[in-house]
Amino acid sequence: MNSEFIIAVHSLVFLAHRPDGMASSEEIATNVCTNPVRVRKVMSCLRKHGFVDTREGSGGGYRLSREPGDVTLADVYRTLAAGSLAPNWCSGDPQSDCLVGSNMGEVMNAVFCGADQQLERYFESITIGQMLSRVAAMARA
Amino acid sequence: MNSEFIIAVHSLVFLAHRPDGMASSEEIATNVCTNPVRVRKVMSCLRKHGFVDTREGSGGGYRLSREPGDVTLADVYRTLAAGSLAPNWCSGDPQSDCLVGSNMGEVMNAVFCGADQQLERYFESITIGQMLSRVAAMARA
DNA sequence: ATTACTGTAATAATATCAGTTACAGTTATT
DNA sequence: AATAACTGTAACTGATATTATTACAGTAAT
């Protein structure tokens, strides 16, 4: 799975966990275990899609702009990783004079579109709020 | 998605399409659009899991050893690409003293295990025989 | 024997992904 | 107004993963 998706989810959960809902790219990067530039790139995308607000300048950072319980992983998936199942590579060749060789690419594509939808449906059932609860439950155990 | 999975599915459909159910690695490679060594590697794996029989030596090649209608994509998936959704990379760090940072890896893992199961369930509903029908339907259209 | 295959390892080429550096723009603080 | 602490991006570098190629031993048909 696309690691930007993971960074995004982790970041959102981290923000949801913060009492004031805020953190800088560096704080997030440390928590996620990656570098701040990558976090900023992902967050920049999340901002454009209305998941977070940004405050530039000193004391700035990111803040959740939606209720954790209202944001599903599917929302994030669609924003950052939609179609990630579809192979970058298509087998076969439309020019082939073989029935299979010439049409497999398209059939395979349809299969993966279906798979992607299936995956989205699953992610639809999990919210950022739930992720936070799960993390907390883990800590108690 | 794992391109070996795609090669495997394409190859099996191609074999199913052959009147005698047989083809050499070179024929398959041409049809799939890749090189014979790769095909042999994938087929070797399929053989070990009982999907095909191999005949070495002159005039040899591969032959489907199960009914196309009985082989699901899930069978192939489990053999060649199971767990492909789970990220190779885990966010966070168990040593972190933050609730989120220390437990997110495990929670994320559980999420992806679920996603993988969801995907398998979907693949369960598609057989090699159906793939062949779809390809044929496409050619008629 | 020769030819046409598979099986597999090793290597080389290529593409993808992640980390780093650099710097312009923004805002709070003093 | 100067400084410090941020975000936003682009460009570059390095690491990693993927794919193709080469090579050769083993097997079976002719």
From TrEMBL, chains A, B:
A GO molecular-function annotation: DNA-binding transcription factor activity
One cellular-component annotation, GO: cytosol
A family per Pfam: Rrf2
Source species, domain of life: Bacteria
InterPro entries linked: Tscrpt_reg_Rrf2 (IPR000944), WH-like_DNA-bd_sf (IPR036388), WH_DNA-bd_sf (IPR036390)
Protein name, UniProt field: Rrf2 family transcriptional regulator
Originating organism: Cohnella terricola
Phylogenetic classification of the source organism: Bacteria, Bacillati, Bacillota, Bacilli, Bacillales
